[in-house]
Structure formats: C-alpha cells, structure tokens
Design a protein that fits this description.
It is built from 12 helices and 2 strands; from the N terminus they run αββααααααααααα. Helix 4 packs across helix 10. The protein starts with 6 loop residues before the first helix and ends with a helix. The protein has one domain: MetI-like fold. The radius of gyration is 29 Å and the shape is elongated. It is mainly alpha-helical. Strand 1 and strand 2 form a beta hairpin.
Length: 319
C-alpha cells in the first residue's frame, strides 16, 4: 500500500472534521450561563419551586393576610376609618359599644379609627429600616467573610461591641441627640440591625469561600467584587432572605417600643406605641381598651411577619 505523499493529505480529514463540527447548530437559547457554580436556568427553577412551596404553607397564607390587612389600613388611612382618628367626636373613655367597637380614648377619639390609621407610621418606618439594615449588613458581611485577615478581625471586634450594647438604650440616645424624625428613626434602627446581619452573612460566606467554583473564579482572574456579588452572593441568598423577614418583625417591635418611650411621632399621631403609652396610665382605673387594642395590633403584625419568616426559613432549609 502506498503511503501519503504530502502533509496536506494527512491533515485534510481532521480539518474537515473540525469544520463539520463548527457547523453544527447550537441548542436554542445558546450556552447556559453559570453563576455561583450552578447554571442560571437551574437556579431559576429552584427559586420557582421554593416560591411555590412557600405559598402553599398555611402559616405563610395567614401571615400574608394579616400583613395585607394592615397594609391596606396604612395606605388608605382615614379614608376607610369609621371616624376621624384625630377629631374629638364622643365622650372620653367610652367602653367598647356599637358605634365605637374599640371604645374611645381620654379625649373622646375613636380607638378603632386610631388603631387603623396608626398602621401607617409603623409600616412606613419598620420595613425600610429593615431593608437598609440588611443591605448594610450584607455588604459588610460579604467583605468580612471573603477578604478575611486583619479586616475580618477588626470588623468582628466592632460587630461584637455593637452586639453587646442595649439596642433600645442606644436608639433612645441617638434619637434624643439627632431628633425624632422618621429618617432619623429609620437610620438608627438600620444601623442597629447591621451588625447582626453582617455576622450571619459572614458565616455563610466563610463556608462558600473555599468551594471549587470560587477557586475557579480566582484562577480565571476575576475581580473580588465580581466573585463576591456574582458568584458567592447567589449561594447565600437563602439566609439573607430569612434575615430580612425576621428583621422586619424586630423593626416593628423596636419602632413601637421607641414610640412607647416617647421617641416616636409627636401627638396627636395615632402611632400604636404612643397609644399604648397613653392608655397605660389609666389601666389602674379599669380602662383597658385604650391599651389592649393598639398592643394587640402590634402583636398581630409582629406575629404575622414571624409566620412568614418561619415559612420562608423552613422551605429554604429543606431545599
């Protein structure tokens, strides 16, 4: 058998094979991107499945209904209240009865109307404070967990110092110094929540930092910011979402406590904490309704948020 007489005759079949392979059409949608060591399509599918499971949980449904009721009251305010929450329309300290199901307060204002309108102050401040606290905590926690070294050591000591301080006392001192406007309260509560969230995120990032997909991103020469927020962050979103829902409940309670102690909106605001503070003074006289109903409103909202948080946490931990 004669041997090939030229180099071109040997390489021609290989060249043709590569050309044929390059002409094979790509699958519809192209190559799936990979973020955090997992294809984006798989991540989206997992999110949809988790959301479907969360929506089916009775605790989530109940919590969402309660939050929705208070949300409607906060949005519509005195447009849906049976009486004006600020006008004096009746006899002071009427016990609950037909026209006044929750009774009246010391100045004759309808307690039901004030409880409904009081949802606005809490829901205007608490969720925004929780979101800002979680955002600050995520950034700091990501930096602590990924950079490590002296930065992690120094920030850990600062976080521990903040966590050792009494939250309400520090908030009162800050608000007394800076004023009691809504933005001051939001900022103070957000700063107080930041260390807790940062510690949680740091712990999650430390467990991800040594995994193969992070090592691969480092070998590719990716920037630190890309690795932290495009590779690691998607894999620690579960704890962050749980922290956000939990912090909203804590923010509601903290804002109400500050109002109870006199650091909330000034009178005649129908703020729940302020109503509890005003009604607390006359409990000894048997006038319980001015304290009970706004306190029950606070409790119902906190419990509802915690029901939602428990539902989210249980599904994400099982996935």
């Amino acid at each position: 058998m004669s041997e090939p007489t030229s180099h071109d005759e040997v390489t021609e079949p290989t060249t043709l094979a590569f050309a044929a392979a390059s002409e094979v059409p790509e699958p519809a949608g192209g190559v799936d991107a990979v973020i955090g060591g997992q294809p984006v399509s798989e991540r989206k599918q997992a999110r949809r499945e988790n959301w479907r499971l969360i929506r089916r949980r009775p605790s989530f449904i109940i919590g969402t209904l309660i939050v929705t009721v208070w949300g409607v009251c906060a949005l519509l305010g005195d447009r849906i209240t049976p009486h004006s929450p600020l006008d004096y329309r009746s006899t002071p300290h009427l016990s609950p009865r037909g026209d006044f199901p929750f009774g009246t307060d010391a100045t004759g204002r309808d307690v039901l109307s004030r409880v409904m309108a009081g949802a606005r102050d809490v829901l205007k401040i608490a969720p925004l404070a929780a979101v800002l606290g979680v955002l600050f905590g995520v950034v700091i926690g990501m930096l602590m967990g990924y950079i490590g070294g002296w930065f992690d050591l120094g920030m850990s000591r600062i976080v521990e110092a903040f966590l050792a301080l009494p939250v309400v006392l520090i908030a009162l001192l800050a608000i007394t110094t800076l004023g009691s406007s809504d933005w001051v309260v939001i900022g103070v509560v957000a700063v107080l929540f930041t260390p807790v969230v940062a510690r949680t995120v740091r712990s999650s990032v430390l467990s991800e930092r040594s995994l193969d997909y992070v090592t691969s991103a480092n070998l590719r020469g990716e920037k630190r910011s890309f690795i932290m927020f495009r590779e690691i962050l998607p894999n620690v979103m579960g704890p962050i979402i749980v922290e956000l829902t939990v912090r909203v409940g804590y923010a509601v309670f903290t804002v109400a406590t500050l109002s109870f102690l006199g650091a909330g909106p000034p009178p005649p605001s129908p703020d729940w904490g302020a109503q509890v503070s005003d009604g607390y003074r006359v409990l000894g006289a048997g006038i319980w309704w001015t304290t009970f109903f706004p306190a029950a409103a606070i409790a119902s909202l906190v419990i509802a948020v915690n029901l939602i948080a428990d539902s989210v946490q249980s599904v994400l931990e099982a996935s």
